[in-house]
Design goal:
The structure is a single chain. This protein has 13 helices and 18 strands. The chain is an alpha+beta fold and 477 residues long. Strand 7 (246-247) and strand 8 form a beta hairpin. The chain is elongated, with a radius of gyration of 25 Å. It starts with a helix and ends in a 6-residue tail after the last strand.
């Protein structure tokens, strides 16, 4: 307990400092207190004192309602929602797609966004998703008019339970008057972004138990074809790794994927600091507090911003994601695997960075004959295609000049993560790259290992930008 009280003394001192350092320290402490309490290490009387002290340190009635349940930080927020269209089904889906929308001064893109979600999805994908639209404007006449249009145009999706439209009442919102003017923003902008944080918090809170994963979109986007399948591949390839947020667009609060189990905490977090900064900044703090230091962003982007006019003041907003591709189905499967190499790795450019669609790579010092880069699957897989790309746009000389691509098989019961006893060569590198198709027709076994072997030493360093593997069916059990 002594450490906790020292922390609270530190908060008392930092309160005189700027908003952002206070936010980071305070949020870290609150999450720590929550985990401490949930694990049962604090007696009931100490728990009461901690709650009272946390509230006292903030000295703000505006925050009291969000800190009141600190001992149940992972619980949902008590909000009474109004169902405007549809109702949730009992079976959990794979993915919930959340959108929050308000009345714009110019333009309205919500209907086209919903249409893009459904049009770009196959029937099998539609069965695994639910779309939740939070009409977050306090103008109830506008909400009712829009929901009539949605219900008419997407009636079959509403009936099927894959489209829900909800509204959180104005009385559930904290005060939106007299807000802190951080960053010198005008008063109406602070009110707009603060309310937007609460809009998202209520949306996240509603969606907590609808599916296994949740992706946030804005109400003015276009989707890539079969985006759910692409996201599912990426999630499967990261099985066994820890992540908080996966990003499928580089813009704003578009295409950010979460585990649904994290939604209550994220909702509480947005509510606690709703007036401090915009939501996309808060999200960076949130993933950092849950130990994901760096963004994990995948290419190509699966969602494109299409709105021409912003929902704030109707001002022009021409932002575009230049990594967006309409047809992104060719994303590799990359089965879960361990990565090994005997090359001299430069700084933090380790082997794992080449085995994903994240914009990063493996970088090793000048390789020698016989050096290798090895991918060992957790389970044997039927492989249809393999592609390896070396070098980068800004370091075009750091390619593999002489190398071979090999695959290997393990004996039943072999140690997980260990090398295969023998390999078959599939192809040789040309101009730094190699791609081999119809692998399953060229070999008579399920692949356990994919190996890149240096066949002649070179003076130049080596960048392996990507190792991509496509399977023909799910990995063996």
């Amino acid at each position: 307990m002594r450490l906790l009280w020292k922390y609270l003394d530190k908060v008392r001192w930092l309160r005189k400092r700027s908003a952002i350092p206070l936010l980071g320290v305070l949020a870290t402490g609150l999450l720590f207190l929550n985990l401490f309490i949930e694990d049962g290490y604090v007696l009931e009387e100490e728990r009461r004192q901690l709650r009272e002290t946390s509230i006292h340190q903030l000295n703000s009635e505006r925050y009291v309602h969000t800190f009141r349940d600190i001992s149940n930080f992972s619980g949902t927020i008590n909000v009474t929602y109004r169902y405007l269209a549809g109702s949730p089904l009992p079976r959990k889906k794979y993915l919930t797609i959340g959108l929050s929308s308000v009345k714009r001064k110019r333009g309205n893109y919500l209907m086209e966004t919903i249409k893009s979600i459904f049009d770009q999805s196959s029937y099998e994908e539609l069965k695994e998703m639910v779309v939740v639209v939070h009409l977050a404007d306090f103008d109830l006449a506008w909400c009712e008019g829009l929901v009539r249009d949605i219900s008419r145009r997407f009636a079959h999706h509403v009936i099927a339970g894959r489209l829900l439209v909800i509204h959180a009442p104005e009385e559930s919102y904290p005060s939106l008057d007299g807000l802190k003017r951080n960053y010198g923003d005008p008063e109406d902008r602070v009110r707009f972004r603060s309310k937007q944080n609460v809009d998202y918090a209520f949306l996240l809170n509603f969606c907590t138990n609808l599916s296994h994963f949740y992706v946030m979109l804005e109400d003015d986007v276009r989707c890539a074809k079969n985006f759910l399948t692409a996201m599912r591949k990426v999630v499967a390839s990261r099985e066994g790794s820890s992540w908080v947020t996966l990003e499928f667009s580089k813009l704003g609060y578009i295409g950010k994927l979460y585990h649904s189990k994290d939604l209550p905490r994220l909702a509480h977090f947005l509510l606690m600091f709703y007036q401090e900064m915009p939501c996309d900044w808060l999200l960076i703090h949130f993933r950092g507090l849950l130990a994901q230091k760096d963004a994990i962003r995948f290419k190509p982007s699966l969602f494109q911003h299409t709105g021409y006019y912003s929902s704030y003041r109707g001002s022009e907003n021409k932002l575009k994601d230049d990594d967006f591709e309409e047809d992104s189905l060719d994303i590799p499967d990359n089965p879960p695997a361990s990565l090994q190499t005997n090359m001299d790795v430069f700084e933090k450019y380790d082997a794992a960075k080449a085995y994903s669609n994240v914009d990063e790579y493996f970088w090793g010092k000048a390789p020698s004959t016989g050096d290798f880069f090895l991918v060992v699957f957790d389970k044997p897989a039927k492989v249809g295609r393999i592609r390896v790309v070396t070098g980068s746009d800004d370091r075009q000389s750091d390619v593999l000049r002489h190398g071979a691509l090999e695959v290997g098989e393990k004996a039943a019961g072999a140690r997980r993560g260990g090398q295969c006893p023998s390999y078959i060569t599939l192809g040789e590198f040309r101009s730094g790259n190699v791609e081999v198709g119809d692998v399953d027709r060229k070999i008579a076994f399920d692949v356990s290992c994919v190996r890149i072997v240096v066949t002649a030493g070179q003076k130049e360093w080596l960048i392996i930008r990507s190792v991509s593997v496509w399977t023909t069916q799910p990995a063996s059990q």
